[in-house]
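Pasting as-is:
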Amino acid sequence: MTAVWQQVLALDARYNNYRAPNNPQIRTLYIRRRSQLLRENAKAGAQTDGQMRKQYLKMRSQLLSERYGANMSDQSSLYSRNTSIRGSKGNLESLDDSVQGSHRRTHSKGSGKLEDLGENQGLVPTKNADASRAMAGGTTIAENYAFAGMHHIFDQHNKAVTAVRFANEDKSRVACSSMDGTLSICQVLPSPATVVAVLKGHSHGVTDFCWSTSNDLILSCSLDGTAMLWYVSSGKCVRTVKDTDNAAIRVCRFQPINNNMIVTGNSKGHVQVLNVSTGKAAKGGQGKLAGQVCSLAFDDGGSVLWAGDDRGAIMSFLFDVATGKLTKGKRTVICEGSPVTCISYRSWINREARDPSLLINCAVNSLCLHRITSRDGGLRLRKTFSIKHKTHSIKSTFCPLMSFREGACVITGSEDMNVYFFDIERSSKPCVNKLQGHSAPVLAVCFNYDESLLASSDADGLVIIWKREQKNR
C-alpha cells in the first residue's frame, strides 16, 4: 500500500516544474506539504482500500496531464516511472520502518537496463531541477553532507578492514571484513553500538564480502582460496566453495537477480560463476583477465558484469541470468599498470545526469567517473578526481540519495587518512567535504540507505561510524 503513495508523490514531483513557474518558493512549499500529507495517510493505510488508492493515482495522473498539457503520465514511460518512484523513496523512508523488507537497493537507480542508453524517455531533466531541490529541502550539497561527528568507533579487528557495508535498506546493521581472517556484524542503532557476531572460518585474510538481497546471508572470500556463505542470524557457515584454481580469491559478488549464483575473481585472473546450492561452477561461466581480478560490479539487472584487474584494465561480460554463462564484451584500459581496486555502478546519478555510470578507483592517485556507452559495457571517461592512492585497495561509492539532491556526490577513501566527498557536477574545486579521524589509510566507505550514517574503515583495523548533521526544516 505504501508503494502507491510513493507513486503519487513521484507523480507530483514530476509535474512540480509547471506549478507557479515564477515562484520557486511556492513549488518547494507545495511538495513538502504534499510529502507530509502522504506520510500521514500512509500511516493510516490499513483503513484505506488498496484499489481505491490505485484509482486515485490514475485519476490524478489524468487530471495533471490535462491541467498542464504535458505527456508525463505513468503510462508514457516505464523508465520515467521507475526512476521517479525509486528516487522518491529517500523522502518516504520514515513512513514506516516495518516496510523495510519490501524495499530494494534502488534509491537513485533507474530501470537498471542498459537498453535505455541513448533514449530520451519520460521527463527530460531541466537545468534548474526545482523538484529535485524541493525534495532535498533547498540546501547546498555541502550542507547535505555536513557531519556532526563520530557516532561510534569499532576496534574489534587487529588488521586492515578491507570492506565495510551496511545491510540493504537497513539503517542499523553494518558488517566488516578483515585481514585478520574474520568478519564482524555490528548493530549501530539504537545506541550503544555493539558487535553482535564475529564470523570465524577463513584461515587467511578476508578480502571482500557482500550481503544477499534479503540480508539473510553474507558471502565472503579470502586469500585462503575459499568463498564462504554465512547465515546472518546464527553466524554459522553453511557452505564453503574452493576456488577451482586453488588461488587466492580477491573479490566476490551475489548475482543481483538470482542470489543462488555468485561470482568470484581470483589472483590468476579468472572470473568464475558458481552455483550456491551445488557449489559447482556454472557451464560457460568463466572469464579471463590479463592480471589478478581486483574488483567486480553488476548492473542493476544483472545482465552486465565488469571486472577490473591489477594491470589497469576493465573487462565487461554479458551475463546470462538463466545459465550463468559469460560472454566477453568490451575491454577498457583505465591506466596501464595501475590496479583497478573498486568498481561501483549507478544507472543514473541525478536528474541532471541520467547516463548509466561506473565509479572507478585506480591506483594512480585518481578516482574516475566513466559513462557507459554501449549495451555490452563499453566505457568513456567523464571525469577524474585527485586522491592519494598508489598502494592499498581503496574503495568508493555513490551516495544513495543523490537523485533528489542538489548536485551529485560520490565518496572515497584515500591513503592520506581522509574520507573525501566530491560533487561530480562541479567543474572546479569538486571536493565539498573531508572527514579527518583515521590514523591510517582509509580503505572502504559506505552509507546506510537513508544517509544518516556513514561507515569508513582503515588499514589499522579501525571502523568509524560518522553521524550526518540533521538540519531542522
